Amino acid sequence: MSAPIGTDTETTTAPPEAAHGVTLTAPAAEKAKALLDRDGTPGMVLRIAVQPGGCSGLRYELFFDDRSLDGDAKVVFEGVGLAVDRMSRPYLDGATIDFVDTIEKQGFTIDNPQAQSSCACGDSFH
């Protein structure tokens, strides 16, 4: 006997979350986790995105986000979710996010091998 038309006799599972090629270093994950523990809400992730603008044509955005966008790729680093949207993923493949704390500089840095050139401030690339 066959199953009635319109019924599914197989069980389906949700596809695994898409991964991305961005790395969050241990110091960056530690700092992000500390900031999330202090000011965040459950379910927030660190999101890196690429937007038009800046003196070189594209600029990075790095922020905490509680949204889940269609096409997001998310990887968890030491308890911190790092999300990349579908449009930004090709521009960020192979990038590394680090956190530096020196006399000269403090903050998150992005080393992106996809960037052909960047501006002096380091926030914009092409």
Automatic annotation (TrEMBL):
GO molecular function, one term: 4 iron, 4 sulfur cluster binding
SUPFAM superfamilies per record: HesB-like domain (SSF89360)
Provenance organism: Nakamurella sp. A5-74
GO terms for biological process, alphabetical: iron-sulfur cluster assembly
Bias-annotated ranges (Low complexity): 9-19
Gene3D superfamilies: HesB-like domain (2.60.300.12)
Residue ranges of domain Core in the record: 22-123
Pfam families, alphabetized: Fe-S_biosyn (PF01521)
Disordered: annotated span: 1-23
Protein's UniProt name: Iron-sulfur cluster assembly accessory protein
InterPro entries (UniProt xref): ATAP, ATAP_core_dom, FeS_cluster_insertion_CS, HesB-like_dom_sf
